Amino acid sequence: MNSERKMHLLDYFKEGFRPDGRKLDEFRPITIEAGTIKTAEGSAIVTIGGTRVIVGVKMQVEKPYSDRPNEGTMMVGAELYPMASPKFESGPPNAQSIEIARVIDRGLRESKAIDTKGLCLIPGEKCWSVIMDVCAMNEEGNLLDAGSIAALAALNTTIFPGFDGTIVDYKHPSDRKLELKKQPIAITVVKIANYLLVDPTNEEEQAMDARLTVTTTAEGTICSLQKGGEASLLPEEIQAMLELAKTKAKEIRGSLSGKGL
User: What domains sit in the chain, N to C, each tagged with a CATH number?
Assistant: First the structure.
């Protein structure tokens, strides 16, 4: 971003507002549509402003990893298709999609949201594998948070397919729900000059000096951190970003309670 455009943003920030009228610590409207993919075991679409992400969950029977024979497995993948933004290209996952998948995966793993031992069917032989596909439908900033909320909402709708010990019956779901022990949500705080803001738009992401994505549980426990941007962060800035992220996560949980979270 050129310096003139960045100065234009800073002129807004000095007044405590952003070009779209929001305060620095204010999210765009968030909506959750749960159970949108009938062929998936769990799914959700999350919209934050103009950013829209869909997540589907598939349950498959696999062989456990050799180093964890008594546990099931989990995988997260993210796809950024050209239909979502002109800046995305077809082909193998790029750095941004890999980062989105990694942030979501780490938050779920480190919070121990999924009881992986409860996914084991026969130790060393069979287990359930939870596979999440994160796809951007439209991108207008803050895909990390949108993907995190969508993944959590999709997992909260997940029902195990039928299984007779040999064959998985996807046409006839069981009555067993995938229970989550924790509810991790990622909140990204962006630093532009001396200002901290949440839910950045594309323009604000282009102007950012640094960002910190903080994943917390409903209890406020920090599960994971992801630093982005070229600028370094001072200890007091990190602390301020952590507190802001925890506060916004609590607000989002309250406003979306009963709607997939």
Answer: 3-255 (3.30.230.70)
